[in-house]
Design brief:
The protein is α+β, with helices and mostly antiparallel strands and 255 residues long. The protein is globular and about 50 Å long. The chain has 7 helices and 15 strands. The strands form 3 sheets. Strands 8, 9, 10, 11, 12, 13 and 14 form a 7-stranded antiparallel sheet that branches. Strands 1-2-3-7-6 form a 5-stranded antiparallel sheet, with helices on one face. Helix 1 runs parallel beside helix 6. The two termini are 31 Å apart.
């Protein structure tokens, strides 16, 4: 196999040069990180599960007219995606008080919010991804007012879709993180959903028990992360029976 040119490596994924101009290969690693890499482990099988779940969600988003960078899954760990210029923002959609919002506002986790809230965070590991306002975004040129409008409209459409999708699986969509990119086609540019949507980027709670089925299991040392991701994949109908029966290995701490 010919050696591929690595374009970028992040906390949970590697981007390689794609087979055609304007494409990239997105590889899902088994690395689990929290608190901007302050906590780091390798959990065998996590990348495979995230790849399959992300494929399922992005296929459905494309089908309902929400533009994404996803083209197709290549193998158990990799996707073919369109090359985009990433907007340097993490966009968080919150439906239920949890995590930093609950801590910041002194709210009890699990409190239903009066409406969905969109928050923007500047993508910077060195600064711990600070919360920013639309004023910051436009003043520093991270996105234009029109791009912000497009991002917010797409974020709410994704929220509507995911809320219904997970509700059908008896899962409560608490909140989730999105990233967006600028896709250029000649003189035209459009904003598309990029990066990934998986249990790494969503808070997912069982509707009846409240059991956490997401990366909070790693953040909070609860254990059972791969089993939780497998349960999400099982409820979505993503994994076959033989794949579900593969015993996961425990986390391996990385210095």
């Amino acid at each position: 196999m010919s050696r591929r040119r690595r374009i970028y490596e992040g906390k949970a994924k590697i981007l390689y040069e794609g087979p055609e101009p304007g494409t990239l290969v997105q590889h899902f690693k088994d690395d689990a990180t929290a608190f901007n890499r302050k906590k780091h482990a390798q959990i065998e099988g996590k990348g495979v599960l995230n790849n399959r779940i992300c494929e399922f969600i992005f296929q459905h988003l494309n089908a309902i007219g929400v533009p994404t960078h996803f083209i197709r899954r290549l193998n158990m760990r990799e996707q073919l995606i369109r090359e985009v210029e990433i907007v340097p923002l993490e966009v968080v959609v919150r439906n239920v008080a949890a995590g930093s919002l609950a801590k910041r506002l002194g709210m009890e986790e699990g409190t239903q919010l009066p409406r969905s809230i969109i928050e923007f965070y500047y993508k910077s590991d060195e600064l711990d991804d600070p919360l920013v306002s639309e004023e910051h975004i436009t003043a520093f040129g991270w996105a234009t007012p029109q791009e912000i409008d497009d991002i917010m409209a797409l974020a709410l459409r994704v929220n509507d879709f995911l809320t219904g999708l997970f509700l059908g699986c008896n899962i409560r969509l608490v909140d989730f993180k999105l990233e967006f990119g600028r896709q250029f086609e000649g003189e035209m540019m459009r904003i598309v959903v990029a990066d990934e949507i998986s249990p790494d980027s969503c808070r997912l709670w069982d509707m009846e028990s409240g059991e956490k089925l997401d990366k909070d299991r790693f953040r909070r040392d609860m254990g059972g992360l791969v089993e939780a991701y497998q349960e999400v994949a099982r409820r979505l109908g993503v994994l076959s029976g033989s794949e579900q029966q593969s015993p996961p290995r425990g986390p391996v701490l990385v210095q």
